[in-house]
Amino acid sequence: MTDPVDPARIRRIWLRTPNWLGDFVMATASFARVRAAFPDAHITAGMRSYLRALAAGSAWFDDVVDTNKVQGLGGLWREVKTLRQGRYDLAIVLPNSLVTGLVPFLAGVPLRLGYRQGRPFLMNLGRRAAVRRRWFQPRQGPRRWPTPMPNYYHDLLDELGLPAGGLHPTLAVSAADDLWVGEHLRGLGIADGTPLLLLVVGANFGASKLWAPERFAAVARHFQERRGMRALVLVGPNEVPLGERIAAAGDALCLSRPVLPLDKLVALVRRSTLMITGDTGPRHIAVAFDRPVVCMIGPNDPNYTNYCLEHQAVLRKDLPCSPCQRKVCPLGHQRCMQDITVDEVVAAGERLLARGG
Prior knowledge:
Layout (H helix, E strand, L loop, with lengths): L11 E5 L4 H6 L1 H10 L4 E6 L4 H4 L7 E4 L5 H15 L3 E4 L4 H9 L4 E3 L13 H9 L3 E2 L2 E2 L4 H10 L16 H13 L8 E5 L12 H15 L2 E5 L5 H11 L2 E3 L6 H10 L2 E5 L2 H8 L4 E4 L15 E4 L19 H4 L3 H13 L3
Parallel strand pairs: 1-2, 1-4, 2-3, 4-5, 8-9, 8-11, 9-10, 11-12, 12-13
Antiparallel strand pairs: 6-7
Helix pairs in contact: 2-7, 4-5, 8-11, 9-10, 9-14
């Protein structure tokens, strides 16, 4: 490990967050760890604009800068100039892309921490751990054995010599957002205290993660009839037709008018009793609040997200073609999702509820 970084010498930190909702939530324990280690530093987070709501109410950052996808050399140069103006002492880069490493390098940030794969000369902290991470990760056959993302970020911060941190994600909910959700549910005819079943369509990634709509509907009917729950279908802007189809077949409500913004979604998930989902971003929001989750992992490798499993049931079929991490099934059958039955999902949900999550 490299020599510890002296917090007293670090006055301004650039922390580039992950771009995806789930990865961002899994990194929140690391955000808290950086803040605890550098209590007097000014920490600026660079993040996708849609993720800003997740940082609201936390003490992780002093400032947030939108870092949406760089468009051409002009966009790259604008980001570089922004960082130069910030006069940062330390850059912590959690994503692994070339661009996220190139920006602090070109901006002249003197200390730059990030994994080095594909960008070995852009980072100058954590050399030995970065090499180990690149060449000596465990393998299963020809495949690299992934590390759960909270551990992945935690291990990177170890190279700064920081005090150890936790792995459990944390999110804040404002009183205003919680009030809005309560009023919205009452407007839909759902009384306070009604147990909520959340069904997450999860079509944004690609067709390979989709579970059949009629199966979601069957799960909704089961928990409504047997447990007195109210089923709500969560959708993104591009998932409304599919979500409404599930809702119509399962006597559920599709939250598509309006599609919930991220801050309201977080407040709703905190109220939930059970979530049924694929490997989606809302899954990790539920984990942050220790809400019970049945996750159909499908084509994704579970080793990226095998963390905080006390309140999760992860369903996966061990197939020769899985995990493929593809957005569209290259074989055309999506067996990794379609072989997961309604009975399996219902049984997993019942087990979680029976043990109190």
